[in-house]
Design brief:
single chain; 407 residues; Methylamine Dehydrogenase, Chain H; five-stranded antiparallel sheet; 31 strands; 46% strand; globular; WD40/YVTN_repeat-like_dom_sf; WD40_repeat_CS; repeat; WD repeat; acetylation
Length: 407
Amino acid sequence: MTATSDPNPEVSDEQQQRSEIYTYEAPWYIYAMNWSVRRDKKYRLAIASLLEQYPNRLQIVQLDDSNGEIRSDPNLSFDHPYPATKTIFIPDKDCQKPDLLATSSDFLRIWRILDDGSRVDLKSLLNGNKNSEFCGPLTSFDWNEAEPKRIGTSSIDTTCTIWDIEKETVDTQLIAHDKEVYDIAWGGVGVFASVSADGSVRVFDLRDKEHSTIIYESSEPDSPLVRLGWNKQDPRYMATIIMDSAKVVVLDIRFPTLPVVELRRHQASVNAVAWAPHSSCHICTAGDDSQALIWDLSSMGQPVEGGLDPILAYTAGAEIEQLQWSSSQPDWVAIAFSTKLQILRQVLLIQVHNTMRHYQSSHNNNHRFRVCHWYYIYDRQSICNSDLNSLRETLNHPSTLEQMKSQ
């Protein structure tokens, strides 16, 4: 199946080429998704099915930017036992290691994509339960970018397991929470955090395996935390999602127990969160209201009347289940809803936010500008202080602002 970019009659052909939405329709409901980070595999993603049966499917698709089509390769589409709860390509930008893909479901599986792209082979099946051939289903995992031989998994059996995938052995297995563990994220070589049905965020240091630090506990009873994102650009901050909640809680690990800010502009449950890979103060959230929102958190911690507003909003065709921000090409965000994968190029999104300081001085009301299919939302307080002088001259030109105003 292939897909082409959605047309936009409001912009020129040159602008159309630079700012697009590319859509791919899979033959099944998409759940797990991940960008490849390899420099020789631009615009490549893995998507996995959510089927109520034992055999599920996983596809590796790639955008051909010369013609704007997302293509699947039959050689890189394969069966997967049960739905994959998560999938991640090996964090190897410089292509120094084999081309690997990991998935979690009943077990942690490592797949190898052959160099000639002819097929995908199962390299390892890793079971953390030493006393049985079965194990508690894995809810999630994270691949350590600083030390790619390490993968951490989370399980409904209350444990987190740290694997050495090169030796195919368990480094450490911890009883991490009192209830099911729903997500795990690395914050460095030997530090990871997890969230659980017990409503807590806990940080673990592998140098002291007997103790953990509780960073946050939900104040609401029976409020499982289901997703966790750790800010790679500024590891002081992480974000978590509460089950069936429309808010995202942002935490500063230096000040446990109290959120530094709560993001409350979604109108339905939030399903996914992704920190910007190139900026320490931007985060994207997505949920059942079909909205993907990008936020500037540079002013978090300062009181904002009425709460913080997003700076960009995109409306999908259905509830957004998955969200990924490309670390190798930060212009691109991918979302999955229903059977569709969309790749969104949000060119100038941070830059436009920075530029509006000059335009806001004579306007008191909130405004929306359509920029590359995203909607830029600003008010007089939402100013990004990023150093973007190289782009400011172009964006500050009156014709640029007037063009955005008219869209």
